[in-house]
Amino acid sequence: SVPKIGPISLGINIVKSEGAAALFSGVSATLLRQTLYSTTRMGLYEVLKTKWSDPESGKLSLSRKIGAGLVAGGIGAAVGNPADVAMVRMQADGRLPLAQRRNYAGVGDAIKSMVKGEGVTSLWRGSALTINRAMIVTAAQLASYDQFKEGILESGVIEDGLGTHVVASFAAGFVASVASNPVDVIKTRVMNMKVGAYEGALDCAVKTVRAEGAMALYKGFVPTVCRQGPFTVVLFVTLEQIKKLLRDF
C-alpha cells in the first residue's frame, strides 16, 4: 500500500527536493489562464444575468443562475485551455524522471513547444474535461454565491456589506470544491498522461475508481478547499468593491 501524505508534508517534500521556487511552478501559466478564463466567465455571467433577469422584479431564478454559469464557464474555459494545459504540465514537471522532464522556460515556451512538437490541437488536449469542469465550477461558484447572498440579506441577519460578501463567498468556494474535485483529478491525469494511458475521461475515471477506490476522485480535497476558499473570497469581495466604486462614480 502507498502511504498517505498530507498537503503540508507534500509541500515540505517539494521544498526539500526541488527548492522553494517549485511551489510556484507554472505561475506564469496560472496568471495567463486566470486572465483569459476568469475575465471571460465573470463578464459573460454578468451579461447573461442582466439579460435573463425578470424585467419587473430584477431577480433571477436559481435555475437561470446555474444556466448562466454553465454557459459562461464553458466559453471561458475554451478561451483559457492552452494556458491550462501549459500550467498542468509545468506544475507536474518536477515529478517526472530527469530524462522525461520538459523544462519549459515559461508559459510562452510551453505553448510554443507544444505547437511545434505535438501540433496546434495539443493546446486543447483535455478541453472537454476543462470545459466540463469550468461549467461545473462556474455554475456552483457564481450561482451559489448569489443564492447565499440573497438568502443572507432576506434573513436580515447581516446587512449588505463586507461581512455578507465574505460569508457568501466562502460558502460558494466550498460548494465549488465539492462539485469540481472529481473532475479536477481526472482532468489532471488526462492532461499529463503519456500517449495511450487512457482512452478518454470516462476511461480514466473508471480505471481510477477500480484501481484506487471511489474516494480517489477526492484526492487533494483539502488543498482544493484551501485554494478555492480564499480565492473565492478575494474574487467576490474585490468584485463587489469594484461594483460599488462604479455605482458611486
TrEMBL record:
<dbReference type="InterPro" id="IPR018108">
    <property type="entry name" value="MCP_transmembrane"/>
</dbReference>
<keyword id="KW-0472">Membrane</keyword>
<keyword id="KW-1133">Transmembrane helix</keyword>
<dbReference type="InterPro" id="IPR050391">
    <property type="entry name" value="Mito_Metabolite_Transporter"/>
</dbReference>
<protein>
    <submittedName>
        <fullName>Mitochondrial uncoupling protein 4</fullName>
    </submittedName>
</protein>
<dbReference type="InterPro" id="IPR023395">
    <property type="entry name" value="MCP_dom_sf"/>
</dbReference>
<feature type="repeat" description="Solcar">
    <location>
        <begin position="60"/>
        <end position="151"/>
    </location>
</feature>
<keyword id="KW-0677">Repeat</keyword>
<dbReference type="Pfam" id="PF00153">
    <property type="entry name" value="Mito_carr"/>
</dbReference>
<keyword id="KW-0812">Transmembrane</keyword>
<keyword id="KW-0813">Transport</keyword>
<comment type="similarity">
    <text>Belongs to the mitochondrial carrier (TC 2.A.29) family.</text>
</comment>
<feature type="repeat" description="Solcar">
    <location>
        <begin position="1"/>
        <end position="51"/>
    </location>
</feature>
<feature type="repeat" description="Solcar">
    <location>
        <begin position="160"/>
        <end position="245"/>
    </location>
</feature>
